[in-house]
Amino acid sequence: MFFHIILERNMQLHPRHFGRDLRDKLVAKLMKDVEGTCSGRHGFVVAITGIESVGKGLIRDGTGFVTFPVKYQCVVFRPFKGEILEAVVTMVNKMGFFAEAGPVQIFVSNHLIPDDMEFQSGDVPNYTTSDGSVKIQKESEVRLKIIGTRIDATEIFCIGTIKDDFLGVISDPGATS
Amino acid sequence: MSIEPFNRLVKLAARAFYDDITKGDNPSKNTRSDNRGIAVVVLDALTRRQWVREEDLAKDLKLQTKQLRRTLRFFEQEKLIAVDHRKETAKSAKIYNSAFNDNNNYYVHSANGNGNGSSINNGGNGMGDDKVKMHTHSYCCLDYAQIHDVVRYRLHRMRKYLRDQLDDKNKIQEYLCSDCGKKYNALDVSRLISMEDMNFHCERCNAELVAEMDNAGEGAGEGDDNARKRSREKYNDMLNRMEVQLKPLVEQLNRVKDLAVPELGSLQAWEARALAAARAANGGSGGDPRANQGFGTRMPFVGEPKIEVAISGVDDTGGSIAAQNGNEPIKVLPPWMIKQGMKLTKEQLGELKEEPMDGSLDPLGSSDDKKKAVTEPEDSKHVQEEFMKAYYAAYIKREQETTVAASDAHLSSTERLVGEKSKRGDNDDGEDVEWEEEAPVDENTSGNFKVDLNVEAGVSEEEDEDDIDWEEG
């Protein structure tokens, strides 16, 4: 699920950036530092949408670095248990398959794949129904439900299932476009 | 076409799902707001009515309007009933009353007897001092089609939830290292994946992991496993109990599945149909509701309009009065309309005169269905066919009644306290309603009044049920 929230961060800025465009430099550094990171509490920071406020800088003794407390608005993505996501399959093996929904990696183990789908090893390992009408392989798009998350300080990993109504390969062409 | 199986469905569902609910956020503020069991009473009452004004229903059930409204709103949210609000003057209320009287004559009679009927009659009497004041009135009736779906959906969700729990559908897969016995679960696999063969390898000994089987873990006897086993048992038990306790409901659903759903239509449509039928029956004098009130009772308007028109004026005295007035020739009933529990004149039977339908179809003799069927082989062929159909319908209904009676006993035994409450309420209601419904029957025996078919069908069945309920209490 996506959230638009305000976060705060202390930014250290090298003295060489002090000048007319100090603020721009600060924002650029903030984006570089923060975007794409993951925190266990808030999830993945997808994008910074604006700066709320920049506090007073504090000069560090000895180094000359200045610390600014910056409040910024950002979009975060955090997966939840029970959430339905659409994801792209990245790898298939006999234990199941891995998929990615944006920054989050999801594993679907083979007992959470419908029973009528069998693992086919070979050049392109895949899961296929007995009649061959549905195939899950690398680059397939699937709709899955998250049934468990492991959230570390810097990493979020999910396990999902496609063994439920309306889950599985997204075959509807309208849904993918 | 029959509304009866659906009414049975509603009653069963009411007892199964709405017996112990308490509406409102403060369950026991005072005794007056204690409305456990009211839901069942209200739903039962609605099965005996069609579109009914909330105030009238409240009066009928001797409930406070507020309390009833709360219950009804709950049912509206549950999508069991259809509700229509409209602003109306005393005059337009009359339209409803005239329609209402036609359909629920028994009810109006008794209400008058109780001295409670004043509001109903106001529509007619108050015409003189025609007030332009607008009042918002709410009407409600059961939405049979939707009830059918709601009940089925509810059962489906219950079953699905329990099955999902049983299947451990959302269980997290565990993996075991065959060499060193270290366990992992699916959440760890992101760091176990080996790029060489795309399989999972143990962090410690780099052996390939195998998925742990469900029943293999049973021997381990860990607390975790035991807990899972216990919850499995719990859900299994719950599922079994659900199947047993809701069996009558499921059976009724299956029976009802292929039947055409009785469609009451919107309030306006219903009124229009009722009025049209009333006019047809009374030779155009249907404009005045008072005139209708004393006259014929009519079939409930549960089917297509054309059928209802055919049925109107079905009653013997109603028909004969119309005939005396010379307003309208008596209608000949088509054979498929002739059912158990109808009193028919010769004219209505039309060319079937010669056949002793009248006696054999005595509404009060409905208890010996079976004998009748056996003793009537000498009837003319096609009439016999029609009669057999009607007989089988009646027979199936009786069978259902017995099963349902048993099921009622079962259902209400689940919640003794609440059941008692509801029974007391039911009792009141039952007495009230029975009295109302019996009134025309008694009068019928004295030959002055007509029999509402609806009532005929209802009485015996009603009594059955109420009897059972009381035994329980």
UniProtKB/TrEMBL annotation, chain A:
Residues spanning the membrane: none
Protein name: DNA-directed RNA polymerase subunit
Family: Belongs to the eukaryotic RPB7/RPC8 RNA polymerase subunit family.
MF GO annotations: single-stranded DNA binding; single-stranded RNA binding; translation initiation factor binding
Keyword field contains Heme: no
Organism lineage string: Eukaryota, Viridiplantae, Streptophyta, Embryophyta, Tracheophyta
UniProt keywords, alphabetically: DNA-directed RNA polymerase, Nucleus, Transcription
GO cellular component: P-body; RNA polymerase II, core complex
CDD domains given in the database record: RNAP_II_Rpb7_N, S1_RNAPII_Rpb7
Compartments reported by the entry: Nucleus
Main location: nucleus
Species of the source: Lithospermum erythrorhizon
GO biological process: positive regulation of nuclear-transcribed mRNA poly(A) tail shortening; positive regulation of translational initiation; transcription initiation at RNA polymerase II promoter
Domain of life: Eukaryota
Domain S1 motif: 79-156
Function according to Swiss-Prot or TrEMBL: DNA-dependent RNA polymerase which catalyzes the transcription of DNA into RNA using the four ribonucleoside triphosphates as substrates.
Positions of the RNA polymerase Rpb7-like N-terminal domain: 8-64
UniProtKB/TrEMBL annotation, chain B:
InterPro entries per record: TFE, TFIIE/TFIIEa_HTH, TFIIE_asu, TFIIEa/SarR/Rpc3_HTH_dom, Znf_RING/FYVE/PHD
Keywords of the record: Transcription, Transcription regulation
UniProt biased composition (Basic and acidic residues): 367-381, 417-427
Compositionally biased tracts (Acidic residues): 428-441, 459-473
Disordered: region residues: 355-381, 404-473
Residue span(s) of domain HTH TFE/IIEalpha-type: 6-152
Composition bias, Polar residues: 404-415
Cellular component terms per the entry's GO annotation: transcription factor TFIIE complex
UniProt xrefs under Gene3D superfamilies: Zinc/RING finger domain, C3HC4 (zinc finger) (3.30.40.10)
GO process terms (BP): transcription initiation at RNA polymerase II promoter
Any matching Pfam family: TFIIE_alpha
PANTHER family given in the database record: GENERAL TRANSCRIPTION FACTOR IIE SUBUNIT 1 (PTHR13097:SF7), TRANSCRIPTION INITIATION FACTOR IIE, ALPHA SUBUNIT (PTHR13097)
Family listed: Belongs to the TFIIE alpha subunit family.
Name the UniProt record assigns to this protein: General transcription factor
Organism field: Lithospermum erythrorhizon
